[in-house]
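Support request from a user on the community tier.

User writes: "When I paste my C-alpha cells into the form, the page sometimes reloads and wipes my input. The last time it worked, I copied everything first. Here is what I submitted, just in case something in the input itself triggers the reload:"
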C-alpha cells in the first residue's frame, strides 16, 4: 500500500513533467498561418495582460475588496466615456452648423 502511494505520488508528477510538451514544442506544431497570427498578436496580448496586472495592483492597494474597486473604476470609465461621446457629438453638431452657414453664405 505504501509502495503504491509512493509510486503514484512521485511517479505521477515526474511522468507529467516528462510527457507534457513545452510551449515552444506546441508552437512548432502550429499551422504556419496560426504561427504568424500568434506572433502578430503576441505584443497586444502581452500589453493587455500587463494592463490587467497593473490595474489589479491598483485595486489591491484600496481598503475595499478588489471587485468593488474594479466596479467603481469601471463606472468611472463609463462616465468618462459618456462625457467624451457627448463632447464629440456637440463638436460634430457645431461643425455641421458651421458647414451649413458657409454653404448659405457661399450661395
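"...and here is what came back when it finally went through:"
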Amino acid at each position: 500500500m505504501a509502495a503504491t502511494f509512493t509510486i503514484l505520488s512521485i511517479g505521477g508528477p515526474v511522468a507529467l513533467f516528462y510527457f507534457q510538451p513545452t510551449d515552444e514544442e506546441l508552437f512548432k506544431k502550429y499551422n504556419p498561418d496560426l504561427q504568424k497570427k500568434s506572433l502578430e498578436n503576441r505584443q497586444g496580448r502581452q500589453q493587455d495582460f500587463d494592463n490587467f496586472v497593473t490595474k489589479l495592483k491598483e485595486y489591491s492597494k484600496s481598503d475595499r475588496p478588489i471587485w468593488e474597486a474594479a466596479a467603481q473604476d469601471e463606472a468611472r470609465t463609463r462616465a468618462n466615456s459618456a462625457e467624451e461621446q457627448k463632447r464629440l457629438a456637440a463638436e460634430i453638431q457645431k461643425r455641421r452648423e458651421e458647414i451649413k452657414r458657409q454653404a448659405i453664405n457661399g450661395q
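Agent notes: The reload is a front-end session timeout and is unrelated to the input. Residues 48 and 54 are 10 Å apart (CA to CA). The radius of gyration is 28 Å. Escalated to web team.
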